[in-house]
Amino acid sequence: MVLNYNLKNNAFSLLELIIAVAILSIGIIIVLEALSYSTRMAGLSCDIIDAVLLAEDKMQELEFKEEQNLTNKESGEIIGKKEGFDWKYTLNLEPDLNLYKLSFNIKWLRANREEGLDLNTYLR
Amino acid sequence: MLTIYSAFHTGIFSYRNIQDSIDAHQAAGQILARINLDLRNSFVYSADETRFEGKNKQISFLALVDSYQEDKIVQDYTFISYGLEGDKLMRLYRKNQEALNDKSEIKPEEMADNVDIVFSYFYIDRADNSLKEKEIWDDQKNLPAAVKINLTLKGKTESNFERIIYLPLSN
Q1: ipTM of the predicted assembly exceeds 0.90
Q2: How high is the pLDDT of residue A4?
Q3: What is the domain range of residue A104?
Q4: Interface contact A28-B130, CB threshold 8 A
Q5: Which of B4, B11, B26 sits opposite A36 (nearest CB)?
Q6: Is residue B171 part of a domain?
Q7: Is residue B49 assigned to a domain?
Q8: Per-residue pLDDT tens for A76-111?
Q9: Closest CA relative to residue A43, chosen from B141, B18, B35, B104
């Protein structure tokens, strides 16, 4: 009596399955990581827009107050806080240019990481 | 599979939320930059008449605005007004001869919708050299020192933006 076995193997082997699942996992991890990164960067871009608006306000305020003699132009560091942003600016006289260099620095926290922005301009 | 689906769903949901926030920030940035540029270029019409009128929901003034003419940048004197029509932010822009024509038929153009805007005005109190705020500006002899703009964009979520714009020609 002869048993007629079909020896042609159509199924995946265990090794093939493991490799396929590993490739799929790597792909999913990459996509999820990209999604998380793009969300973080999108949030950061919103923060930067807010920070730039704040910096512009503060620079205009300083320029205006000095033009109107409401404050004295003195070299030094001023610090402040507004809606989650910590800002500070330093004003230094540049003798060669006879201009004041205004360096504005804003810091804030995004997902427990400190982010920052530095802006510089010159005032007469 | 359920975990993967859940992770993707949460990721896309939070991305959509942040996308709304980006759209609001970019729109607010553009609106505030436009108003800032116009206000910073505002000028006084005459010693007795600034033609600057500031209300709670509307502001109008004269300003110099750059425009192109035969490949050259020229400055046009213009009358500019920002105000609300329902929940639409409208900008009226009349230039040159039309600037002083109060009966002009030029209509305001829509800048943004689903918006609320509140203006307030600062002046210098020379008694203590500080800036004081008031809701309406009706002084026709002086420009305000600064204009505070409180802009609210009402999308799926409400976003609030505040700017104080200092007028270089105020006294």
Answers
A1: no
A2: 61
A3: 14-123
A4: no
A5: B11
A6: no
A7: yes
A8: 677 888 888 999 988 888 888 888 888 889 999 988
A9: B18
